[in-house]
Amino acid sequence: MSNEQILEAIKGMSVLELNDLVKAIEEEFGVTAAAPVAAAGSAAVEAEEQSEFDVVLMSAGASKINVIKAVREITGLGLKEAKDLVDNAPKALKEKVSKEEAETVKAKLEEAGANVEVK
């Protein structure tokens, strides 16, 4: 079978059939179809392209009550839920938000006395 014949056969396959073919090839030859990525290069690209951030409450600090109030305001949680979240720090408060929103949330929490990280 020539390369052209193989390509013609692949062109006629559905997406599901192609997926099954890839899995069969991976199993048969002990390879993976994932594209190799340089670790250092991908980390730099991710840092430049990051558009979604997570705001993580690391600790409540000295003024736990003010932090609970701030968490309630930011998340809309009830008193018990906000207290549980603060008590179980480190916890993510907001996930996949814009940089501006993450910075605003961080500022509010730090003003209340919390230790916060934006990832």
Anisotropy-based shape: rod-shaped
Order of helices and strands: HHHEHHEHE
Number of domains: 2
- What is the count of β-strands? 3
CATH architecture of the largest domain: 2-Layer Sandwich
Q: Please report which band the strand proportion falls in: under 5%, 5-15%, 15-25%, 25-35%, 35-45% or over 45%.
A: 15-25%
| Rg of Cα set | 24 Å
Average of per-residue pLDDT values: 80
CATH C-level of the largest domain: Alpha Beta
Number of helices: 6
What structural class results from the helix and strand content? alpha+beta
Q: What name is given to the CATH topology of the largest domain?
A: Ribosomal Protein L30, Chain: A
Q: How would a crystallographer describe the biggest sheet?
A: 3 strands, antiparallel
Helix content: 55-70%
Name the strands of the widest sheet in spatial order: 2-1-3
Protein name: Large ribosomal subunit protein bL12
Domain Large ribosomal subunit protein bL12 C-terminal: 53-119
Family: Belongs to the bacterial ribosomal protein bL12 family.
Pfam family, one: Ribosomal_L12_N
